[in-house]
């Protein structure tokens, strides 16, 4: 028994070492990824549940690694946050999305509001990249309303003056603010009145097992009612079945996002979906 215990601890140490090595090599590769243009954005439609129309999409980053293939943002965003590289990556994401909105306006005469995920690290740094972004928008002749930023409750939990003033700066130029993964964090409802929040995004974990008479449905209904009383719109994440969609629509949910409607798409596929087809 002693022996096997020793083996086990040895096994764990090796496993931990290889996790650490893996992170280190990913971290090195991340630096090259920006310079070598290995990132791209995909766009997932956000569908108005009443009409099936699409005026919004969430931009999600993808990393095409030269050897590893596609690396999930869930795996590399935390590493980029630790190394601080998320600042430059976030800057790239914003500029890429802004150029895309500009292109779509020219090509189709229609504005799609793009939601961008912002890491708390971007807010907490003293960098003022957002001011450069506002300049970039001016140059492109785009209004702030073409964008929404998605933040999480953890950012608001310990919001310093810097964070509050950055959030206000986004609001002042007309960018909208969405609270992502709503219901999973500390969910202090006071955030909703303290900050200028335009949307809550009900987390997938509430949508996954939606059924008539389920407690998840009761929770969704309560979140929707509360948001609406405060003038906040609701987006449900992870909608995969028509039953989920129908329950959410009946509950008054404004928007849905999920594989039922579409996976995140390349720009070409997104254009095909939005301009050549109706979802209902
Ligand atoms: P998130 O912001 O909560 O994004 C939603 C995730 O759910 C996306 O995963 C999306 O592809 C996935 N999803 C969409 N519909 C469905 C569905 O019907 N069922 C299921 N099971 N999943 C669905 P993805 O693209 O892998 O992104 C994972 C996370 O990585 C995001 O979660 C976000 O936190 C982060 N992330 C992605 N892009 C960026 C970015 O540009 N910047 C930052 N800071 N974070 C990003
Ligand atoms: Ca998001
Ligand atoms: Ca606002
Ligand atoms: Ca989410």
UniProtKB/TrEMBL annotation:
It comes from the Bacteria. GO terms for molecular function: catalytic activity. Keywords: Membrane, Transmembrane, Transmembrane helix. Residues 23-278 form the EAL domain. This is Diguanylate cyclase/phosphodiesterase with PAS/PAC and GAF sensor(S). It comes from Sideroxydans lithotrophicus (strain ES-1). The chain holds residues 630 to 909 of 912 of the full protein.
């Amino acid at each position: 028994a002693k022996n096997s215990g020793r083996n086990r601890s040895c096994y764990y140490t090796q496993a931990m070492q290889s996790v650490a090595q893996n992170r280190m090599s990913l971290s090195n590769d991340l630096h090259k990824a920006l310079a070598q243009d290995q990132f791209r954005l995909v766009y997932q439609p956000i569908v108005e549940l009443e009409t099936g129309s699409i005026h919004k999409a969430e931009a999600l980053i993808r990393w095409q690694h030269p050897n590893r293939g596609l690396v999930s943002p869930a795996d590399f965003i935390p590493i980029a946050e630790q190394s601080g590289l998320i600042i430059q990556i976030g800057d790239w994401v914003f500029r890429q999305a802004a150029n895309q909105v500009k292109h779509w306006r020219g090509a189709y005469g229609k504005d799609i509001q793009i939601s961008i995920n912002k890491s708390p690290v971007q807010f907490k740094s003293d960098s003022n990249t957002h001011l450069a972004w506002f300049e970039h928008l001016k140059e492109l002749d785009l209004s702030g309303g073409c964008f929404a930023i998605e933040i999480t409750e953890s950012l608001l939990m310990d919001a310093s003056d810097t964070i509050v003033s950055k959030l206000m700066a986004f609001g002042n130029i007309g960018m909208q603010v969405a609270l992502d993964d709503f219901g999973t964090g500390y969910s202090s409802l006071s955030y909703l009145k303290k900050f200028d929040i335009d949307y809550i995004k009900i987390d997938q974990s509430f949508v996954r097992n939606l059924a008539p008479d389920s407690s998840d449905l009761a929770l969704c209904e309560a979140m929707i009612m509360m948001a609406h009383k405060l003038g906040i719109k609701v987006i449900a994440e992870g909608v995969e079945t028509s039953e989920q969609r129908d329950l959410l629509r009946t509950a008054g949910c404004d928007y849905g996002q999920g594989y039922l409607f579409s996976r995140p798409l390349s720009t070409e596929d997104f254009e095909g979906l939005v301009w050549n087809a109706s979802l209902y």
